[in-house]
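INFO batch 0412 | record 1 of 1 | parsing
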Amino acid sequence: MQSTTGPIENFRFSSDDLPPRERLKAMRELQERGILPLEPLPACPVHVQIAKLFLPGVGILSGKLCGLKQTGARDAVDARDDIFLGVNLAGISTATQRGREVVLRDGDAVLLSCAGDGFTISRPTPVHFVGFRVPRQALASTVPDLEDPPIRLISGKSAPLRLLTSYIGAIGSDGPTLEPRELRLAVVTHIHDLIALSIGARRDATVAAEERGVRAARLRAVKTDIAANLDDCGLTVTAIAARHRVTPRYIQKLFESEGLTFSQFVLGQRLAQAHRLLVDPRFSKRAISSIAFDVGFGDLSHFNGSFRRHYQLTPSEVRHRAAG
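INFO prediction complete | emitting tokens
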């Protein structure tokens, strides 16, 4: 990876459109350019589908790999003071560093140092993964014995680790457009907190990390859940709380921290989705009542009234203006 202190950058690569004989050549070129630290494994089919995102203080590599070995080279100048947390979302990987080897299964993670002797993570069979490279100083004050042991296996049953992966999954589509800078820095702080909790933050640092990182991750996960289920007329705070294994009051407090109630957020999301459908020419023939029901309104008069109060226009007026 490149330096994690610069501005947001994005990089995507897939071998899907390349014939098998061209894949190894493409991998060598990317490795020589310092973009992807990947090497093909002997007698294994090669597949790559990855995305890299750089934020100020963390580099994120995610996607699917098969038939490849990921390396953390000890002579990479910009990596000498970084640590790497690799999470196996699905599949089996083998990580090696300083003569020690650990096997990662579904949900497991491994903590590795980018300094010293470097490391390797081998994935001979298909693996869905996400990896984080973080400057050591970002975690040194909150995590004791960061280098002891030099390679550390973290169980997929870890609640902070599961929150970390769900948080990254939720911001995945927003990563390239995280603005303003304050939002990017807040996201990085949350990631640092969740990584620290996953690998064992000091007791005096745990409270602050839970307050920031865990709450932010849960709120993001709840918002993602709501967005995916707007068409459910039974979308209640009780149902959401049950799915996320917290109390309804906890969900309400998450939204209160943003000056909202759960109901206000759901209503706003439904109205925004209805507005998007009304201005989309692909849905110009769909009845307004059908759109209202599609986004979770069970009562048409409630939809019309709420929509007009929010946009100062009726649904018909919005559609008419869009058709312009």
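INFO post-check: The mean pLDDT is 86.
INFO record closed
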